From TrEMBL:
<protein>
    <recommendedName>
        <fullName>Amidohydrolase-related domain-containing protein</fullName>
    </recommendedName>
</protein>
<dbReference type="InterPro" id="IPR032465">
    <property type="entry name" value="ACMSD"/>
</dbReference>
<feature type="domain" description="Amidohydrolase-related">
    <location>
        <begin position="123"/>
        <end position="347"/>
    </location>
</feature>
<dbReference type="InterPro" id="IPR032466">
    <property type="entry name" value="Metal_Hydrolase"/>
</dbReference>
<dbReference type="InterPro" id="IPR006311">
    <property type="entry name" value="TAT_signal"/>
</dbReference>
<dbReference type="Pfam" id="PF04909">
    <property type="entry name" value="Amidohydro_2"/>
</dbReference>
<dbReference type="InterPro" id="IPR006680">
    <property type="entry name" value="Amidohydro-rel"/>
</dbReference>
<keyword id="KW-0456">Lyase</keyword>
<dbReference type="GO" id="GO:0016787">
    <property type="term" value="F:hydrolase activity"/>
</dbReference>
<dbReference type="GO" id="GO:0016831">
    <property type="term" value="F:carboxy-lyase activity"/>
</dbReference>
Length: 348
């Protein structure tokens, strides 16, 4: 570890040139953005990361990461076969540096143990995992699986349940109501990957009953955005003006932009400026091309950013080390790393 930041916890020491676009999206349809547990995981009361430069510690919630299980195999394959094999270097040490061994352990018996070891080593207190629903059982994690994991790793693991856009919305909402009653704390949708009726956008009126329910309950909704947010391309899933139209109808909806609305960064910032209940989860894109705009505005919108590594896209420890080096006030850093996520998940 560099001497910029000393990371520890309380308890534990190409695009492949010949890869066709359509084949790429099909291969990672549910893997872009499973779970088996390990017995006896130590439940840390309050893991912390030590920032030597500031001479203080911070608690951390990683709001966007995925475990090394078959349910998310496509995402781990993308790290190994796409990001790490780019014909030109992607100058981010968290994504183009050394690939942790756990990234290569998807589905193996000790994979979850190794995953938690990476989390502990980085000094991360809690993690948030967004589920998803597809026709591929190897790319699906529903609310029931997430709730099971929450019980197994109580106090450290929180799930964001996927709303099934492939079925009638009344039935999807009935399923969501049961999961909310069981304790789920957030929902997620991926309109750009809908299969029934084809990819769609967030302003689809079919989804309005969902937004009304979540707004009334005060439950956050994460929407998939980013450079890989659609089967064909990134255009429509990232059209911020559509989200603005939704927010006009549901102004108190707690809307989280998973992957930060990238590449429409300026528009995403404008959306957050206009609507105080919009939250930006720029995660790995914070340190990808153009991510300086996110970095420069965390301080100004300090109640509307949440931290995430997007693991396996970004290594847990290196991403956090880069984040601690940002020129943020202690107050903004505390909110970004921990308190904004606590508020969204209603953990206090």
């Amino acid at each position: 570890m560099s001497d910029k930041n000393d990371i520890n916890t309380n308890n534990v020491d190409s695009e492949a040139q010949d890869l066709p676009r359509r084949g790429f999206f099909q291969a990672t349809l549910a893997g872009i953005a499973g779970l088996a547990g390990i017995a006896g995981l130590s439940h840390q009361a309050a893991a912390e990361v030590q920032d030597k430069k500031r001479q203080r510690k911070f608690q951390v919630i990683d709001f966007r990461c995925r475990p090394p299980l078959e349910s998310f195999a496509g995402l781990f394959k993308m790290r190994l076969d796409y990001i790490a094999q780019r014909p030109t270097v992607l100058g981010n040490p968290a994504t183009h540096g050394k690939v942790p061994d756990v990234v290569k352990m998807v589905g193996k018996p000790d994979a979850m143990k190794a995953w938690w070891a990476e989390i502990d080593k980085a000094g991360i207190d809690k993690v948030v995992v967004a589920g998803r629903i597809t026709e591929d059982p190897n790319n699906t994690m529903d609310g029931a699986a997430l709730l099971k994991m929450e019980k197994e790793y109580a106090g450290r693991f929180y799930g964001i349940t996927p709303v099934n856009l492939e079925i009638d919305m009344k039935q999807a909402l009935a399923n969501l109501e049961k999961e909310l009653a069981a304790g789920i704390r957030g929902a997620t949708i991926e309109p750009g990957y809908r299969q029934k009726g084809g990819p769609t956008t967030m302003d689809n009126a079919e989804f309005f009953p969902l937004y009304e329910l979540l707004q009334d309950r005060g439950i956050p909704l994460q929407v998939q955005t980013g450079a890989f947010a659609g089967v064909d391309n990134w255009d429509e899933p990232n059209q911020i003006w559509r989200m603005d139209s939704v927010m006009k109808k549901f102004p108190k909806l707690q809307l989280i932009l998973g992957h930060g609305g990238y590449p429409r960064i300026t528009e995403a910032l404008a959306l957050a400026l206009k609507w105080p209940s919009v939250v930006i989860s720029s995660d790995v894109y914070t340190f990808w091309p153009g991510g300086q705009l996110y970095q420069q505005n965390i301080e100004m919108l300090q109640d509307q950013f949440v931290y995430g590594s997007a693991f396996p896209f970004g290594n847990f420890d290196t991403t956090l080390e880069q984040t601690l080096a940002l020129p943020l006030s202690d107050q903004a850093m505390e909110k970004y790393l921990y308190h904004n996520a606590v508020r969204l998940l209603k953990l206090s």
